[in-house]
Specification:
heterotrimer, A alpha/beta (309), B mainly alpha (182), C mainly alpha (438), A: 309 residues, alpha/beta, 43% helix, globular, B: 182 residues, mainly alpha, binds sodium ion
Chain lengths: 309, 182, 438
C-alpha cells in the first residue's frame, strides 16, 4: 500500500466508555494488520455533536460513527423502533434481533442513506428515582421525569408522569434541586452522571429490562466499498470480534452500575416479568400505537420485530 | 461633496437603496427582539406548567431554542446596521485614509464572500430538510425546515445589509470603519 | 503538514485577520473557511452552516440574552442611582466611605447587570463628579469605577461564566457560586487600595462626607428593596428546585422587566423597546461569535490541531504552575485585544484538556480566567471601561484614567496569586451549596 488511508470516526462518549473501546479495538486491529488503512477517533463529540453525526456520515464527510440510531428518527421515523419500551427483553434477545429480518429491513433503509452497520449492539438502562422505587407504571403518577427517547416519553406520560425535556448536562442539577423526581437513561450514563449522589432508588436492567437502545458502529457504505478487498476483509474481521466483545461488555455495564449504586447505599429495585408485562401493555397503547400511526409501513416493521423470539 | 452634483439620479437611487435596506434590517431587529421577548415568556410559562401545574412540558424547550436561533439570524443585519458586531480596529486606526478605505472594502468583500458560502450551503441544507420532510426526533417532533429556514434567510439579509454598507462606503456616505479622518 | 505547525499558521492568520478590523465573528468564519477549504477540501465548506446551527442549537444559550435583558432593564432605570445613594448615606461616616460606597455600588450593580460598560456609566456618572468634588484624586475617582465595573463578569450572574460553562460543559450554577467569594475579595482589595491611595495623596481630610440623619438613612432603604427582591427571586429559582440555571435566567429577566415597568414606572412602549433593542444587539453580537467559534473549533478539531496541542503540552512535562503561568500570560494578552466571550470560546477547547490533565479544578480555573478577562477590560488598547470613563468624564485625561486603573490591575494580579495559593476561595462555596465536585 503506497499511501495509507485514514478513516475518521466520531462519537459522543469519553474514552473510558465501552462504545469508545469498541471503536478502539477496530482501530488497533487495523494498525496491527498493516493494510494501509488506519482510524482516527474523535471522542467526546470533539468533531460532531451527538445528534449531528448521521447526515455527514451519509454524505461521506464522516467515515464512521458509534451512534444511537434512534437519534436519526426524525429523518427516518422507522429508526424509532430501535428505542421502543419492551421491544427487547434482555441482551441475548437483542443479539437475536440483530440477526433477524427486522434488522435486515432497517439495514436496507440505512443503505438508502449510503450507511452500513459494522458492529451491532444494544445497551440497556433503567430508572433512578428520589423517594419510592419505580418498577410499575403506577409508580410514575405525579412524578416529574426526564426520559431518554421519544417512545419512553410517550409511555411515561401515559403512565401519568410529567415529562421534562432538558439537556443531559442539566440532569444532575435538576435532580439535586428537585426539578426532577426521576430519570430514565442507560446504565453507563447512570454511573457517569453520578446520579447515585442524588437518588434513593435504582431500578437497573436485570433479567428483564424496558430500556434497550440500539447503538451500532456505522460506516459510510461507499467509503467501505472503495476499500481494497484485503482492507474490507480485515475491517469485517475486526468488526466481528468487536461485536462479541460489545455484547459481553453491555451485560457487564449493567452489573457494574448496580455495584456502583449498591456501594453508594442506594436501594436496588427489581422488575418482575409481571411488571414488565404491565409496562409493555401500556407501551402498546401509547408509544407503539403512535409509531404505527405515524410510519406508513410501521405495523409491518413492528411485526417483524415482535416475531423475534 | 460640494464639487459633484449631489442630486445626480444614481446618487438618489443609491440613497434610496441604502435607506430601503436599512428599513428591512430595522424590521428584522424588531422581529429578533420580539422573538427574544417571546422566549422569556415561554420559558416562564414552562416553569409554571412544570412546577405549579405539575404537567408535562413537551414543546417549550425546543421552541425557545429555535426562537433564539431565529433571533440571532434575523438580528444579524440589524446589528450590522447599528455597527454592533464587535471588532478590533488597531490596524485601521494606524493606517492612512486611502489604505484604510481599501482595507475596509477588502474586509467587507471578504465578509460577503464567506457569508455567501454559508448562506448557499445553509439553503441547500434547508432544501433537503424541506424536501424529505425531516422532523425533530422529540415527542413534539416539529418539521425541521421551519427552524432551518432562519439560516439561509438570516445570512441573505445580512449580506444585503453588508452590500448596502459597501455602497455607502464606496459612495463616501460612510467613513471606513466609522473612524474620523485624522 | 504537521498539525502543530498548522496550528501555528492558524494562530498567525487568525491574529492578522482579526486585527484587520473585520468583526470578530466574521473573521473567525473567514479563517475557518480558508483552512477547511485548503486542508480538508472544498467539500468541507458544506458543513459550515450545520456546525453553526449545531452550536446555537442549545438550550443553555438561552441564559445569555436573558441575563443581558436583566442588565439592560436595570440599567435603564433609576436603580443604579438609588443603590449609590443608599450606600453613600450609610457609609458616609466611614473613612473613605465615598469611594467604598462607589465600589460597593459597582459590585452590586454589576452583579445584577453583568455588564461592565453599563456599570461604569451608571455608577460613574454620579460617583466620579462627587468624588472629585470632595477632593479625591482623579486617579482614584476614575480608576475605582473602571475597576469596579469589571466585577460584573465575575460576580453572578455572568455571561462570561455561562459561555465558559457551555464551552467546557461545566455546571453553570456551580460556576456562579465559584465567582462569589473571589468577587468579594476583589472588592475588598479595590477598597483597600482606594482608601490607602487617597490617604497618601490627600490625607484623611477628604474622607468624611456630609452627615445624614437616621431618617434619611432609613427612608432610602425601600428603594433598594426591588434589587434585593430580584436577587432573592433568582437565587430561590436557581437553588430551590424551581428551575435549572438556564431557565432561571428567564425568571430573572421577567422579574427585572416587571420591576422596571411597575416600580420604576417605565411603561412607555418606547423605553421598553430601548431595553429590548439594546439586549437584542448585545445578544446577537455574542451569539454570532458563539456560532462562528463553533465553526472555528470544528476546523481546529478536524485538522487535528486541538488534539495535537493538548498532546504536545502534556508531553512537555513542565511544572503545573509554570504551565498555569504560561496560560495566564496567554489569556492576559488575548484579553488585551479580544472581548472575553471570544477569548473563552476560542481558548476553552484547547485549554480545558490541558487544565484537567494538569489536575487543576475547572471551576477554580474559570475564576482565574475571568479575572484575566477583567484585566483586559481596563487595559489598553481596547479596554472598554477606560473609554466609557473617558466619555462620562471627558475632562479627565485618558492617560490619568489609565494611570489610575493600573494599581487595580495589580490588585487583580494579586487576587490571582492569592487564588493560586488558596484555591478554596473559589471552590469552598460551590462545594458547600452543591456538594463536592463531580
Ligand atoms: Na454579574
Ligand atoms: Na480588552
Amino acid at each position: 500500500s503506497a499511501e495509507a488511508q485514514q478513516l475518521r470516526l466520531s462519537h459522543q462518549w469519553s474514552t473510558a466508555d465501552v462504545r469508545h473501546q469498541v471503536a478502539q479495538m477496530i482501530a488497533d486491529e487495523l494498525d496491527e494488520a498493516d493494510v494501509g488503512l488506519s482510524m482516527r477517533i474523535f471522542p467526546s463529540a470533539s468533531l460532531f455533536s451527538a445528534t449531528e453525526q448521521y447526515l455527514p456520515l451519509s454524505r461521506g464527510q464522516l467515515d464512521m460513527t458509534v451512534y444511537p440510531l434512534s437519534y436519526a428518527g426524525g429523518q427516518r421515523p422507522e429508526f424509532n423502533l430501535t428505542l421502543m419500551p419492551g421491544l427487547v427483553r434482555n441482551h441475548d434477545h437483542g443479539a437475536r434481533l440483530n440477526n433477524s429480518p427486522f434488522m435486515e429491513a432497517l439495514e436496507d433503509l440505512m443503505a438508502e442513506d449510503d450507511v452500513m452497520v459494522l458492529v451491532h449492539g444494544y445497551l440497556a438502562g433503567g430508572f433512578a428515582s428520589k423517594g419510592d422505587c419505580i418498577t410499575r407504571p403506577e409508580h410514575m403518577e405525579g412524578r416529574t421525569v426526564r426520559a431518554a427517547g421519544r417512545a419512553f416519553e410517550q409511555m411515561l406520560a401515559a403512565a401519568g408522569a410529567s415529562i421534562a425535556s432538558m439537556a443531559s448536562s442539566e440532569v444532575y442539577n435538576a435532580m439535586q434541586t428537585g426539578v426532577l423526581d426521576a430519570v430514565n437513561t442507560s446504565s453507563s450514563s447512570f454511573v457517569s452522571f453520578r446520579l447515585y449522589e442524588q437518588v434513593d432508588c435504582y431500578t437497573p436492567a436485570a433479567d428483564v429490562a424496558l430500556w434497550f437502545m440500539y447503538q451500532p458502529l456505522l460506516m459510510n457504505k461507499s467509503t467501505f466499498e472503495g476499500l481494497s478487498a484485503e482492507q474490507q476483509e480485515v475491517l469485517l474481521a475486526a468488526a466481528e470480534k468487536a461485536e462479541t466483545w460489545y455484547l459481553e461488555q453491555a451485560k457487564h455495564d449493567d452489573v457494574r452500575s448496580v455495584e456502583v449504586y449498591r456501594d453508594n447505599g442506594i436501594e436496588i429495585a427489581e422488575m418482575t416479568e409481571e411488571d414488565f408485562a404491565a409496562w409493555r401493555e401500556l407501551a402498546m397503547e401509547s408509544a407503539y400505537a403512535s409509531f404505527v400511526d405515524q410510519v406508513p409501513n410501521g405495523q409491518e416493521l413492528l411485526d417483524l420485530a415482535l416475531a423475534v423470539e | 461633496m460640494a464639487s459633484t452634483s449631489p442630486d445626480a439620479p444614481w446618487r438618489r437611487g443609491a440613497d434610496a437603496l441604502i435607506r430601503g435596506i436599512g428599513w428591512i434590517s430595522t424590521f428584522c431587529g424588531w422581529a429578533a427582539a420580539s422573538m427574544i421577548l417571546a422566549s422569556v415568556l415561554i420559558t416562564c410559562q414552562m416553569i409554571f406548567v412544570r412546577f405549579v401545574l405539575r404537567q408535562s412540558t413537551v414543546w417549550q424547550t425546543e421552541t425557545v431554542v429555535y426562537l433564539m436561533i431565529a433571533a440571532t439570524m434575523l438580528g444579524l443585519p440589524y446589528v450590522q446596521m447599528m455597527r454592533g458586531h464587535v471588532n478590533v480596529d488597531l490596524l485601521p486606526i494606524w493606517l492612512r485614509p486611502l489604505p484604510r478605505k481599501l482595507l475596509a472594502v477588502v474586509v467587507l468583500v471578504a465578509g460577503i464572500v464567506v457569508l455567501s458560502i454559508m448562506g448557499y450551503y445553509a439553503f441547500e441544507h434547508w432544501h433537503i430538510t424541506f424536501q424529505r420532510g425531516w422532523r425533530s426526533p422529540s415527542v413534539w417532533g416539529p418539521q425541521l425546515w421551519i427552524p432551518y429556514l432562519a439560516l439561509p434567510l438570516g445570512f441573505a439579509l445580512f449580506i444585503l445589509q453588508l452590500l448596502a454598507d459597501l455602497l455607502a462606503l464606496l459612495s463616501g456616505r460612510d467613513k471606513p470603519f466609522g473612524l474620523e479622518a485624522d | 503538514m504537521d498539525p502543530l505547525v498548522l496550528g501555528g499558521l492558524v494562530a498567525v492568520i487568525t491574529i492578522a485577520v482579526l486585527f484587520s478590523g473585520v468583526s470578530v465573528a466574521t473573521g473567525l468564519l473567514i479563517v475557518s473557511a480558508l483552512f477547511l477549504a485548503v486542508f480538508d477540501g472544498l467539500w468541507a465548506l458544506e458543513l459550515m452552516p450545520e456546525k453553526f446551527f449545531g452550536k446555537l442549537n442549545s438550550f443553555a444559550l438561552l441564559s445569555i440574552p436573558m441575563f443581558i435583558i436583566m442588565g439592560a432593564a436595570i440599567s435603564s432605570t433609576r436603580a443604579g442611582a438609588d443603590l449609590y445613594e443608599a450606600l453613600e448615606r450609610w457609609l458616609t461616616r466611614v473613612p473613605g466611605g465615598l469611594v467604598m460606597s462607589n465600589l460597593g455600588a459597582c459590585a452590586l450593580f454589576s452583579a445584577m447587570s453583568g455588564s461592565s460598560p453599563a456599570t461604569c456609566a451608571a455608577i460613574g456618572k454620579m460617583g466620579i463628579p462627587e468624588m472629585r468634588k470632595r477632593g479625591y484624586p482623579e486617579t482614584v475617582a476614575s480608576g475605582s469605577i473602571a475597576a469596579g465595573g469589571t466585577l460584573g463578569i465575575l460576580i453572578p450572574p455572568s455571561v462570561t461564566m455561562i459561555v465558559y460553562g457551555i464551552a467546557t460543559e461545566t455546571s453553570i450554577g456551580r460556576l456562579f457560586l465559584a465567582g462569589v467569594l473571589p468577587g468579594l475579595m476583589l472588592v475588598s482589595l479595590f477598597m483597600a487600595w482606594s482608601v490607602w491611595s487617597t490617604w497618601r495623596n490627600t490625607g484623611l481630610s477628604v474622607m468624611s462626607g456630609r452627615r445624614y440623619s437616621l431618617r434619611e438613612k432609613l427612608e432610602i432603604l425601600p428603594r433598594v428593596l426591588p434589587f434585593l427582591l430580584v436577587i432573592l427571586g433568582v437565587l430561590y429559582a436557581m437553588y430551590g428546585g424551581l428551575a435549572t440555571p438556564s431557565e432561571t435566567a428567564a425568571v430573572g429577566a421577567l422579574m427585572c422587566l416587571l420591576m422596571a415597568v411597575i416600580i420604576y414606572r417605565m411603561w412607555s412602549p418606547k423605553s421598553l423597546w430601548l431595553v429590548l433593542r439594546d439586549s437584542t444587539r448585545e445578544s446577537v453580537m455574542i451569539l454570532f461569535i458563539i456560532g462562528a467559534a463553533g465553526v472555528f473549533s470544528y476546523m481546529l478539531s478536524s485538522l487535528f490541531i486541538t488534539q495535537s496541542i493538548a498532546l504536545w503540552i502534556s508531553d512537555l512535562d513542565v511544572n503545573r504552575w509554570v504551565l498555569m503561568g504560561a496560560i495566564n500570560v496567554f489569556l492576559l494578552i488575548a484579553g488585551f485585544f479580544l472581548p472575553p466571550v471570544a477569548v473563552i470560546l476560542m481558548a476553552a477547547p484547547i485549554l480545558l484538556p490541558i487544565i484537567l490533565a494538569a489536575d487543576f479544578d475547572p471551576y477554580w480555573f474559570a475564576v482565574i480566567l475571568t479575572i484575566n478577562m477583567e484585566i483586559g477590560l481596563i487595559s489598553p488598547p481596547v479596554g472598554l471601561n477606560l473609554y466609557v470613563i473617558n466619555s462620562i468624564a471627558p475632562d479627565i485625561k485618558l492617560k490619568t484614567i489609565l494611570k489610575g486603573s493600573l494599581p487595580y490591575v495589580a490588585c487583580m494580579v494579586l487576587a490571582i496569586l492569592i487564588l493560586c495559593i488558596f484555591p478554596g476561595i473559589a471552590t469552598w462555596l460551590p462545594d458547600m451549596v452543591m456538594g463536592p465536585v463531580r
